[in-house]
Amino acid sequence: MKVSLITVSYNSAKTIADTLKSVQSQTYKDIEYIVVDGNSSDGTIEIVKQFLDSAKDVSQDASQDSEKDISQDTGVVKKFLCERDKGIYDAMNKGLAMATGEVIGVLNSDDFYCSNDVIEEVVRAFQQNNTDCLYGDLNYVDPIDTSKIVRKWRSGSFRKQNFLKGWMPPHPTFFVRKSCYDKFGKFDTQFKSAADYELILRFLFKESCSAVHLPKVMIHMRAGGVSNVSLKNRIRANREDRLAWKINGLKPKWFTLLRKPLSKLIQYF
Fold it and tell me: Which of the following CATH numbers is that of domain 3-268: 3.90.550.10, 3.40.50.150, 3.30.950.10, 2.30.30.90?
C-alpha cells in the first residue's frame, strides 16, 4: 500500500527540518512524500533541497516545470512543487492533485511524527479494518522546547453523532483513501482556517465514510495554530465552522458550535 504524505510550507525554515526528518525516519518505506512550497524567501527551499537527491534541482516557477517527480531518488521528498499559491488549502489541493498513493495524509510544516512507526501502524490499521479513513491522537508541544507537552488531544472512538457535540479529530492525524477525495472532493478554498473541519465533516458526517481511531499519539504539533492565535481569529473560525454545516446542507444543534471550542479546554488537563 503506497501512502502519499503532503507537507505545505511557506517561510517554514525554523521548523520544517523536524518535519522532513520525521518522515525520513519512518520504518514504512512505500511513501510518496510531496512538499508544496509557496515560494518561500527564508531558506525553506534550501532546506527541502537537502532532502532531495543531490543531482536534482527544482524550479521556483510553475511555468518552468516546477514539479519534479523524483520517485527513483534516494531523498525522502519524492515530489516538490514550488510556486505561489492562494493560501494553505489551495496548496494542499495542489498536493492532492499530485498524490498517487492509495492512502493520503497531511503533515504540517511545523508538525512532526512522534515515533518512527507511525505510518507502519497506519497502514496496518487500514488493512485490518478495511476503512475509508483513520485518525489518531496528538500532542501540542511548546514551540521552542518541543519535548514539553502543553496540551493533549485524545480523539476517542469514532461515533458519527459526536459531530453534533462539537467533536472533530485532529486533522494532522487524519488519513484518507484517495478514492474518497476523488469521489467527494478536496479542500474548499473559500475557507481561511476551517477547510479541514469542513472536509472532515463532509467525509465523515455527510457522506458517511467509515473511520477508525488508532489509539496512538501520532503527531507533535507546535502550539499556536492559525484559528487560535487571537480572539478575532477564533471568532472567524467559529463563523467558518457554521458555514461548513450550511454549505453541506447540514443542521447542527444549537450548542454544537459553542461546544467545539470549549471542548478544547479539557485537553489542557
Answer: 3.90.550.10
